[in-house]
Amino acid sequence: MNSIPFTPRIRLLALLGLIAALAPLPLSGLTLELQRRDAATGAITLQKEEVDPKRVGVIAVDVWNYHWCKTATMRVDAIVPRLNKALEAARALGMTVMLCPSDVVNNYVGYPQREGIFLLPKIPVPSLVDVACPPAPDAGGCACGRERCAGENFGWDGMHPGLIIGEADLMPDTQGEVYALCQQRGLTHLIYVGFHTQACLLGKAMGLRGMKSAGLHCVLARDMTDAHPGYDPSRDFTPDLNTEQVVEHFEKYIAPTISFEQELTKIGKWDPRWVVDPVRIAPWGTPMRPHLFEQPITVTLAAPLQPGAEIRYTLDRSAPSATSTLYTQPLVFANTTHLRTAAFRDGRAVCLESEGSFVRMGPLPPAPGIAIGDLSPVRSVGFGHSYGEKVRYSGNTKPPQKNKSNLGLDLRVNRTTYQTGMGVHAPCALIYELKPEYERFVALAGADEYLVSISHGSNLTKYPSIVFKIFIDGKQAAASPVMRVLSSAWRFDVPIPAGSRFISLVAMDAGDGSREDFADWANAGFVVRK
Questions:
Q1: Residue closest to 291 by CA, chosen among 73, 45, 497, 445
Q2: Distance of CA 502 to CAs 356, 366, 386, 477, Å?
């Protein structure tokens, strides 16, 4: 006998049937809308293709924590929140997520996601498709305009710290490793996200070109990639326009694209109300890596993935709101400016807030009449352990060095060698007695660039970050912004008030530790009253 009476049992079965009807159907296939372009006319064609998510791999290429171009670095930072949402959905759908930071992948030894790769069988990679195409548009890799970053500073040493590494993710590096994974798991389609599209997604071993040649169906997610950038406001050439051009090149000659967001929205795996995209700034200086300039600069704001949004901004350090100044055209800054910006639609924020730091350089100071290297400081302390006035300097750090870097090499800041000055390691303070005839203190101060000569500073040049300060009789008289490797030297020209007794030259870490904070006071000394 059933324990549930007949009529209530019918009601219960009906209720269970209703619940089952309302529950989402199991996903048997994912229908991708592939976008291509005619190579001659550029006309767009759309094609639908159904694929089992379990046969799809998502490859995130070079989501690095640093780039020699500060704007390129921040553009990676801007897309990481979006990538995290997409990769989370991909994992939930049963897709295989592969994180590929190429030349720094071996910094992930000990991670199961990397160690598991070495168990893969060695499978010959076939060459089935000839992926021949014209060269992709290349704007040079720096989006900082006239104040272009030096392309010698290869400081990345891992993936972006905000990128979530899934427990079941994998970290292949070579074409063979990716191909073996595809064979092992029965993957037929690869969706590519990451950076920098025409350089890394196209040129790296595990990149789109290589895997397409091996017979995989490769697709570029056009809303989750960013080109190796360029910026020229004089001809309205922005990093986002650069990315559009590169994506179009892929659609014409290399592979179809999808909007990953739209694909996930269709199946309920993306909430359009999510706020994941910061407003993008070009050039994109930040307080920790400011944009230094001499002549007025043009700054462009954009929210390319939030069409129709109103970009609002402030210049007084207050938080932007839906009533802040509306951005209608590129901004021109002639003086030091701190920018905060966000985007809104119908009064609701649709973009995360961004900030930009732009610092005007003063004129070059005159040469000193008396160099600090020819004077004896009344106090000298540096990086190490202090016992009264004695310092036990740490590691390979030395006491301040006259006319040399702290390591005994040439004083070099921003590709310029200086003959006179002092080489120190932050934190360091040099105190000198002032004489009545000293009229001004002058110096060119910056991060020493010796690291660049060591294999382009690989894995290291992201670390130096120094703030220079000058105190006269205990009161701050001047300070630099945060100085980085291959930044222009900061120009000090500080009047010395009559009757002043002491000047303190301070090099500090910028709040992120003092690793590799070798600092140069170049052409430093005193202009004497005539």
A1: 73
A2: 36, 21, 22, 12
Q: Give tens-digit pLDDT for 352-361.
A: 999 999 999 9
Angle in degrees, CA 9, 14, 20, rounded to 5: 125
Q: Which residues of 288-324 are buried (b: 16+ CB within 10 A; e: fewer)?
A: ebbbbbeeebbbbbbbebbeebbbbbbeeeeebeeeb
Q: Flag whether pLDDT at 210 surpasses 90.
A: yes
281-360 fold:
Immunoglobulin-like (2.60.40)
CB 471 within 8 A of CB 478: no
Q: In 63-94, which positions are buried (b, 16+ CB within 10 angstroms) versus exposed (e)?
A: bbbbbbbbbbbbbbbbbbbbbebbbebbbebe
Name the burial class of residue 192, with classes exposed (0-12), middle (13-18) and buried (19+) by CB atoms within 10 angstroms of its CB. buried
Asked if pLDDT for residue 214 goes beyond 50, the answer is yes
CA distance 489 to 445: 5
- pLDDT tens digits, residue range 92-103? 999 999 999 999
Q: Cβ-count burial of 249 within 10 angstroms (0-12 exposed, 13-18 middle, 19+ buried)?
A: buried
Q: What is the pTM of this model?
A: 0.92
Alpha helices in 4-147 (DSSP H): 6-22, 70-92, 112-115
Question: Strand order in 466-472's β-sheet?
Answer: 379-381, 428-433, 502-509, 466-472, 475-479
Segment 124-182, tens digit of pLDDT:
999 999 998 899 999 999 999 999 998 888 999 999 999 999 999 999 999 999 999 99
Query: Among candidates 163, 165, 20, which has minimal Cα distance to 81?
Result: 163
Q: Tell me: domain 30-273, CATH 3.40.50.850, correct?
A: yes
Which of 344, 288, 348 has the alpha carbon at shortest distance from 313? Answer: 344
- Measured CA to CA in angstroms, residue 193 lies from 73, 208, 413 at distances of 16, 10, 36
**Domain coordinates of the chain in residue numbers?**
30-273, 281-360, 370-528
Q: What is the pLDDT of residues 425-472, one digit of tens each?
A: 999 999 999 999 999 999 999 999 999 999 899 999 999 999 999 999
Q: Which residues of 491-517 are buried (b: 16+ CB within 10 A; e: fewer)?
A: bbeeebeeebeebbbbbbbbeeebebb
Question: Which pair of tokens denotes residue 155?
Answer: 């400081």
Name the CATH superfamily, with its identifier, for domain 370-528: NPCBM/NEW2 domain (2.60.120.1060)
Residue 107, burial from CB neighbour count under 10 angstroms (0-12, 13-18, 19+): middle
